[in-house]
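tool_call: predict_structure(chain=1)
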Amino acid sequence: MSNLDKLDRAILNILQTSGRISNADLARRINLSPPATYTRLKRLEQDGYIDEYVARLNRPKLGYGMLCYIHIGLQGHHSEELESVRRRLRDMPEVQECSFITGEFDYILKVVLRDQADLERFILRELSPLPGIARISTSLVVSEIKSSTSLPIIDE
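tool_result:
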């Protein structure tokens, strides 16, 4: 963050909530010329501060009414087994997020599913066959209090 000045941070903050903003509107909001804004934006992209531009879709409207967090515990921690599980989890479209964690379990997954039958299918046909799975614990989300993709970028 030390490489970013006030205008860079402003650009990143605006893009987190308005990813489709035009360069002209972005320039107006930060009080800079459109060419200078475009140059800064391209530099932020090239330097890796911006990973990608995406649309956040309405999960329930698209039929994914169930959101779960699933903890997975492995029997052992052999490198081949861990890598095999990671590869397979990365390829599962239902898995929105996957983290290798400390504590009682090895992985936590954020998973979107259509309904209870879809959850049963996912656990029995996708997760249970993974090599070395010892435990699976599922928590269903009753309601989302906050769902954000924005990072707290502050002025220094």
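agent: The first helix runs from residue 6 to 17. Proceeding to next step.
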